[in-house]
């Protein structure tokens, strides 16, 4: 029996892997940010992402390269990958939106939906569920939302100004853009040739109620790897999860 939702599930994705990763130095002195490994995993961030995308039914990925592009391209050429990968390098800096548009032009199925993810995200949740959510809401773009833990301790107070409790690294009360997306086919045509889609395309879609937000399910792992401290924290968290 055929699955009625199969047509709305992307089989293609873009990974944005061109950032400088300056806050992750010295790890990014000789490799791009997505090639940095989480200690103890033996896998670079992008290797984890490609495995996750393949598990979620993706067969074709376009990787947008930038900083030390040749290092990433060489790894992709020699690694045993679970899907087909094409790389693109922007001829000049196009901004996040322009870079996304440039990479999307190489997707093999322009008439089908697609996923996109930032190259510094280490996460695991059901992209199939996110794609279903996207289709049900008739959205043009759906953004994954995370509630990360704050890097500081927090306090609770009562109405008289007395501190009643200390909370170590509590979850944020706000949801943030988790750097994972589902896009309908027409989204690529709405992207700027150059510039940031989060300041142009996304606000436009939000006004039209065509931008959806999918909250990553509670208990699912998510972390953006921006600094050396993130690497250390991720290693601890992933070790705890594997016990």
TrEMBL record:
Pfam families for this protein: NTP_transferase (PF00483)
Domain Nucleotidyl transferase residues, every copy: 13-239
Gene3D superfamilies referenced in this protein's UniProt entry, alphabetically: Spore Coat Polysaccharide Biosynthesis Protein SpsA, Chain A
Top-level lineage group: Bacteria
InterPro entries (UniProt xref): Mannose-1P_guanyltransferase (IPR050486), NTP_transferase_dom (IPR005835), Nucleotide-diphossugar_trans (IPR029044)
PANTHER family (UniProt xref): SUGAR-1-PHOSPHATE GUANYL TRANSFERASE (PTHR22572)
Record-given protein name: Nucleotidyltransferase family protein
């Amino acid at each position: 029996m055929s699955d009625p939702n199969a047509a709305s599930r992307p089989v293609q994705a873009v990974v944005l892997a061109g950032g400088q990763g300056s806050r992750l130095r010295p790890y990014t002195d000789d490799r791009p940010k997505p090639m940095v490994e989480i200690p103890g995993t033996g896998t670079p961030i992008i290797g984890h992402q490609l495995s996750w995308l393949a598990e979620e039914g993706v067969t074709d990925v376009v990787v947008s390269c930038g900083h030390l592009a040749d290092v990433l391209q060489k790894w992709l050429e020699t690694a045993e990958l679970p899907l087909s990968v094409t790389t693109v390098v922007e001829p000049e800096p196009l901004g996040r939106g322009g870079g996304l548009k440039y990479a999307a032009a190489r997707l093999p199925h322009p008439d089908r939906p697609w996923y996109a993810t930032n190259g510094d995200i280490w996460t695991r949740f059901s992209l199939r569920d996110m794609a279903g959510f996207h289709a049900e809401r008739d959205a043009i773009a759906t953004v994954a939302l995370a509630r990360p833990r704050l890097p500081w301790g927090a306090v609770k107070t009562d109405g008289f100004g007395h501190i009643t409790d200390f909370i170590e690294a509590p979850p944020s009360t706000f949801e943030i853009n988790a750097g994972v997306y589902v896009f309908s086919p027409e989204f690529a045509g709405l992207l700027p040739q150059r510039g940031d889609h989060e300041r142009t395309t996304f606000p436009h879609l939000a006004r039209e109620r065509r931008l959806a937000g999918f909250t990553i399910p509670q208990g699912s792992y998510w972390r953006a790897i921006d600094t050396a401290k993130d690497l250390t924290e991720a290693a601890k968290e992933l070790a705890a999860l594997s016990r």
